[in-house]
Design brief:
alpha/beta; seven-stranded mixed β-sheet; 265 residues; Rossmann fold
């Protein structure tokens, strides 16, 4: 078994098949993420923020709660519609387009964020565009949550990978570290684009999940959504049964979030 990347075009639109289920399936990010955004990246009242790939608005809601003005760039029309309906406020503008194609003003944003989404953007192209649209003195923050932790292997992850045929992690190069935790790779494309002061942090967390909650989580993942409906049901049944039969109905899941930030000089 191994890790691989799905086709970018396919991945951008998979999650829009069932926005409600996706929204229910995804866990929130650790509070440490928002501590960094407010303490080091300028998130606060009146900050102008562009969010790349917001999906159903898990992070968008937190940005709005900090009284930021948010431009959310979402390539999936169903997800964009869900986001608009969920957050009917003048503080949120939703642009339905891939980030590379979205028409965004130069030097306009205090902060750019992408939460478990920038892997659907070509890194060099995306970083160059971020450099153009973020104000001088502004910040970017990119982060990914892995629904496993390579440093804390868990029996459930091994068993789930056997069922699914691959891991939730992705890589840029065979044999390399998971893309989500590949510090050198993220530093390289951001530095080449002209960002300075690159910083990274690994944030570890744990979440207790029962069989139904884990089924919902895996139902929101691209590695399941990429299968035909009948195969999805079979895979999700197997995941749910795994939890019930081998783990007494619940698992404490170790998650890890790779967080990367830099400034625009």
């Amino acid at each position: 078994m191994g890790r691989k990347r799905l086709d970018t075009h396919q991945g951008r639109h998979l999650f829009g098949q069932d926005p409600e289920s996706y929204d229910a399936g995804r866990p929130g990010y650790p509070d440490r993420v928002y501590e960094i955004l407010t303490g080091d990246c300028g998130l606060g009242p009146g900050a102008r923020v562009v969010e790349i790939g917001p999906a159903t608005g898990l992070v968008t809601a937190r940005l709005l709660a900090h009284q930021a003005r948010v431009t959310a760039v979402e390539p999936s029309a169903p997800l964009a519609d869900f986001l608009r309906a969920s957050h009917p406020t003048e503080a949120l503008e939703v642009v339905t387009a891939p980030f590379e194609d979205a028409e965004l003003p130069d030097d306009a944003y205090d902060l750019a964020v992408a939460a478990t989404s920038f892997h659907w953007v070509e890194p060099d192209v995306g970083a160059a565009k971020l450099r153009r649209i973020v104000k001088p003195g502004g910040h970017i923050a990119l982060w990914w949550m892995m629904f496993e932790d390579p440093a804390r292997p868990h029996e459930f992850d091994t068993a789930a990978e056997e069922i699914l045929g691959m891991s939730p992690g992705t890589v840029m190069d065979p044999g390399g570290p998971p893309f989500q935790l590949d510090v050198d790779a993220h530093r390289e494309y951001l530095t080449v684009a002209g960002f300075t002061g690159f910083e990274s942090e690994v944030i570890r967390s744990e979440t207790r999940m029962d069989a139904a909650r884990l089924r919902t989580l895996y139902a929101s993942m691209a590695l399941v959504l990429s299968h035909p409906p009948e195969e999805r049901v079979r895979l999700l049944d197997a995941i749910e049964n795994l939890v019930l039969e081998r783990f007494d109905g619940e698992v404490v899941r170790p998650f890890v979030t790779g967080f990367y930030r830099a400034g625009n000089r």
